[in-house]
Design a protein that fits this description.
Structural class: alpha/beta
Largest sheet: 8 strands, mixed
Number of strands: 10
Length: about 270
């Protein structure tokens, strides 16, 4: 059975929609011409690219994202980065968290700075594109997942009318503290979906005080998407990943992080 086409009228969670938002996240890694060509094939007639340079004390030079729309839906996808480029972000315990959006809880300082660099343009574009009651979807992989999750929370907490219909992330690192995670769980009930592929190391970091939202879709070692990981499996995976070199290129922690693995697994669950 072939993969179902992208449903521009989707309103809730289903695995086919998760697959297409994973494709949108993967597309964020491409050049602008490729992004626009592919989005036209998917039925989007307007595209806006967001790119802003900034100089935080981390090995990252800019933030990239795109927003695409048609008469039924809007997708904003944030580009991620290679694991080695955010290793310092994920393991740093010296930089204090900063206050979260609308003064709610706290967020990872580096992720907040990365989002700050493009957020005004993203918000301005959403206001322009949202002219037909379209649904709004935010997505991203790795660092892009953190930015998508944080952007969704910030949009809503700063303007409750900008509640996204869904935020889907893949291999997302922990982004905010327990207070902000709890607030997002309540505001985004049945709208936040965090996918983790097997032993992907990135979602296990940074350490406390950072947390995830509640809803997890775990891709197990056979490639099956499950609503949660078992207690025993989760603990053993974490222990194994964090006692070795977690970022070793040949290890499960990194191999399971790449976006291609997420897309392939989701596709296999559909066909």
């Amino acid at each position: 059975m072939p993969v179902p086409p992208l449903d521009h009228r989707a309103t809730g969670y289903n695995l086919a929609h998760a697959y297409w938002l994973a494709r949108a996240s993967d597309l964020a890694y491409k050049d602008e011409a490729t992004i626009e060509r592919q989005l036209r094939e998917w039925g989007f007639d307007r595209v806006r690219h967001h790119r802003s340079a900034f100089t935080p004390p981390f090995p990252l030079q800019d933030t990239q994202a795109y927003t695409a729309t048609n008469e039924h839906m809007i997708i904003t996808a944030f580009r991620g980065t290679e694991p080695d480029n955010i290793r310092d972000w994920l393991t740093d315990t010296t930089t204090p968290p900063r206050p979260g959006p609308a003064g709610t809880g706290h967020v990872h300082h580096g992720f907040a700075e990365a989002l700050d660099s493009v957020f005004p343009k993203v918000k301005e574009t959403l206001a322009e594109f949202h002219d037909n009651g379209q649904t709004l979807w935010l997505t991203g992989h790795s660092l892009g997942g953190a930015l998508a999750m944080l952007a969704g929370c910030r949009l809503y907490l700063e303007d409750p009318e900008l509640l996204a219909d869904g935020v889907y992330t893949y291999g997302q690192p922990r982004t905010y503290d327990r207070l902000l995670a709890t607030s997002c769980n309540k505001a985004f009930k049945n709208r936040l979906f965090r996918f983790v592929n097997n032993n992907d190391i990135v979602p296990q970091l940074p350490p406390e005080p950072f947390h995830h939202v509640d809803v997890l879709r775990h891709i197990d070692s056979t490639g099956k998407v499950r609503e949660t990981t078992s207690l025993l499996g989760g603990l053993s995976d974490r222990a194994r990943s964090l006692t070795a070199d977690a970022f070793a290129p040949a290890g499960d922690g990194i191999r399971d992080h790449f976006m291609a693995g997420y897309v392939t697994a989701l596709e296999r669950n559909l066909v």
